[in-house]
Amino acid sequence: MKNKKIIIKFLMVFGILIVAALAGTIRWHALTTLNVDYDEDDYLRAAQQYTTIIRAGDWDALKETNYRSEHPPLAKIVFGISLLPLPEKTLIADRPTSAGPNQYLPRDLLRNARITSAIFGTLTAALVALVDPVGGFFLAIHAFTTKYVSQVMLEALPAFTSILSAFFYIQWKKRRRKEFAWLIASGLFLGLTAASKYIYCVVGIAIIIDWMIVAIQSKEIKKTIIPLLGWGLFSIVVFFAANPYFWADPFGRIKETLVYYSSYSTTATEVTSAGYPFWQPLVYLFSTPKSWQPNAILVAVDPLITLFAILGFKSQLKKQSLYSIWVLVALVFLFIYPVKWAQYVVILTAPLCIMAGEGFKNTILIPILNWLSQIRITKSNSIAVVRYDTKKALPWLIPGIIVFVLFTILPLIFEVGVSLTDFNSISIKDGFEGGIFREVWGAFTGKIQSVDTEFPFREKMVSFIGTSAYPIVLRSVTDNGILFFNLFWTVASVGLQTMLGLLAALLLKQKKVFMKKGWEILFILPWAIPEMIGALMWVNVFQPETGWLSLGVSQYGTSFPFSFLNGWQNSSSMQMLVLLIAGVWYGFPFMMLAASAGLKLLPKEVYDAAAIDGANGIKVFRWITWPMLVPLLVPAVIIRSIFAFNQFYLFQVFPTGQLTLAGLSYNLFNPSGFFINGQFAISAVINVITVVILVIFVVILNKWSNASEGVTYA
Question: CA-CA distance, 460 to 571, in Å (whole number)?
Fold first, then answer.
């Protein structure tokens, strides 16, 4: 037993060292190859000022120095310390925040400051590996984190201190909140986090929420107040102690900071002109900076990490709730805060990667181990029974199998074959005369080698290019936000359709509803209208300048209903709202029918028993209706999700310029129009990627909902 513990500890230490080495290697490559970014000149100038102060020993100057005073000075002081071994250089010029990156910064100063950031970034990945080795691995390779902790930015130090604050709080909680040294350490690092960059204090809010949840569950709220206040006050003391700029005039300079943030977030040209929607942080989490500087980012799998984090959210919430709460609090803050710069996502990437590690283990590692275990214990007689049952059912399955192969499998195989070539509108004659089969079959038999060709494809003869187009297309649709928008649209529209459809079904189920059949027919009408016609109807309503809404507002002013939507085309968030109105209107009738059919199948005896027990309507819905209805609704949700993910006409006719994978595939496929059109192979790549995404979505949704177990699981 003792030897086993020693082996486990050795493997843990070895795993942490591997993660640290990986993180350090990736960050070293990034810091030596990344171009100078926005704000790096500002923080390097601030570092020079602190270097001069430290060399001169003029400690009183610390109280009056804080270039870019909207941020506290600690991280800038640390950068200043990193410049001490270097010769003093001319102070970098003061430039406005709207100025572009200064590409003429002294390279030795830049290098030392970046190395300092990278060291803290590497330590953060190692600390996360101590919590979860897989999570540490994910943080080591996370592209956005790598970029912003390998530059002269303020992210690396507070990212490190914030995870330390959470780590020590969890250690205190594990010890039943008795050993207060852990709590003191948590408060210390929370104060240092605040003294480095304010927004990283979301970890403190997450800790408070988790703290109160534990107190409520254990019914020890009164006992919790004093330690909580002590922890918070100690953090504030540490914040002021590490923030010499506040010593001279604490309240005045805090006010100065708050006024700056308020003004900057609402009036700064670079903020207002960006036009980012409130969900922009999610776009970053589902994309990578690889396309910005492809040579500097070695690994770019951020969307996959985010997907694993979503899959691990529920499990992590049960296992160690703080990390899931931290991610939620950070996302709410990023949604609300008007400034949507990409570096802000680093406030949540550490807990996100811990959740991703949990998701990877639950969805990949554990199922593989269970599958291998089941293979070993499979009995021969069970195999015989399965074969016997299959032989009996085969005559009944053959007709369906033939239709499925002819109309699903063969077209899909053909699509995959096309995606491995450079088939385009110029080579259409050769392609349909056997060129596609010639190239694909020749490649698989080893007679033909793949060729390198540039996009757009314009060769007259079809050539085999292998899978080279897949990573390019996938990176393109990921980095430009199309894939995220597709996923976001599917979740938002289908979620609202399900809520509205279920609400309508519950209302129509009530007794004494006047004209129940009439309401049902009225609600079904949107679904009966072809999508193209429905989309054109909504375009007539929302068309800028000539639509019904615009004309009504111009005639009657702001008293016209829904006048707040006028000018929707000028805001990304309002564009989404208008699209959701049209999409939900079109899709909710199907969900209403599914919910109505499901409600009729629920056993009345359960409701009678609930009535006898005195359960009110909310409890009946929460504990009876909803659990039994979910497995019946899931097939309808899957169907609507597939339609929403592939929604085409709405985005094609609405004047938003927003593209989905379906729209992009069509625009590339369409032989007429621009020079880039007629790219049949690229269109096929997009279609194959779409099919894979939908298959994964269906599997995940089916697993989450336990729909395969039917109503009995509830």
Answer: 44
